[in-house]
Amino acid sequence: MIFILMIGLLVVSKARGNCPDGFVQFRESCYHFSHSRETWMGAQVACKEAFFPTKANLVKIDDQAENQFLFRQAQATRTEYWIGASDLQVKGVYRWLNSGQEVGTYFNFWIYSGNPSGGPEHCMEISLNTNNVPFWNDQTCTDFQHFICETAAK
């Protein structure tokens, strides 16, 4: 019995050891859902510096499963989050900050007409409608809001 308990503790501690403290693992990545609010650029700096040496960045969403994982967290906390894409380099062309890959190459979740809306809104967020349904949205980069950092699982 003690042997089984010790193996169970070893498995649990090893699973937790894949991500830094304060991060949650999903597949091969670790995510930090911030409790603080920052501008979009401030959020990227916080991801890079606050979690050094983890080499975290604002999250890059690679596929529908990852998107749904992040959407579920936003719904559960009823919180909107900065994510790692903007059109700051080329207006109207949203690119992921850490790869330069264009958003929507494989899939996208701009479900509402008018998004991205342009104007002064150049940074991407996971937003929530009045029914707590998440979607991608472009937002003014100087707004302060929560953010999601991502780093590779060890």
TrEMBL record:
What is the annotated signal peptide range for this record?
Answer: 1-17
Family matches, as InterPro entries: C-type_lectin-like, C-type_lectin-like/link_sf, C-type_lectin/snaclec_domain, C-type_lectin_CS, CTDL_fold
Chain ranges of the C-type lectin domain: 26-150
SMART domains, alphabetically?
CLECT
Among Gene3D superfamilies, the record links this protein to: Mannose-Binding Protein A, subunit A
Pfam families under this entry? Lectin_C
- Record key words, sorted: Disulfide bond, Signal
Could you tell me what this protein is called?
C-type lectin domain-containing protein
Organism, by scientific name, is Dreissena polymorpha (Zebra mussel)
What is the taxonomic lineage of the source species?
Answer: Eukaryota, Metazoa, Spiralia, Lophotrochozoa, Mollusca
